[in-house]
Design a protein that fits this description.
1 helix; mainly beta; single chain; 6-stranded antiparallel barrel
């Protein structure tokens, strides 16, 4: 990442690699995808292809979290797709960036 991109980020990203659930808010299609990274302002996830995703598309996101007793629940977020990354030589997977 170059210096300009780094300065543009308002919130530092943390790498992540666990499953989250997403739901298209228009057709209610639900999927489980792999979270790539997360920050206070958004997140990105990995997909096989970008055919079903568009910039400005609204998604519901369910992120698993455990309480102090180890009980699983889900944090529910409303998000908007802000960018799409196609597969290429440097990116073996396509991924989708969200603003939450």
């Amino acid at each position: 990442m170059n210096q300009i991109e780094h300065e543009r980020r308002q919130h530092p990203r943390k790498s992540a690699n666990f499953q989250i659930k997403i739901q298209n808010q228009q057709n209610h299609d639900k999927r489980t995808v792999e979270l790539r990274d997360i920050s206070e302002g958004g997140l990105s996830f990995i997909v096989e292809h970008l055919d079903d995703y568009n910039e400005n598309q609204r998604l519901g996101v369910n992120i698993p979290e455990y309480d102090e007793q180890g009980v699983l629940s889900y944090q529910q977020l409303n998000a908007e797709i802000v960018w799409l990354q196609h597969k290429d030589l440097l990116n073996p997977h396509a991924w989708v960036g969200l603003n939450c």
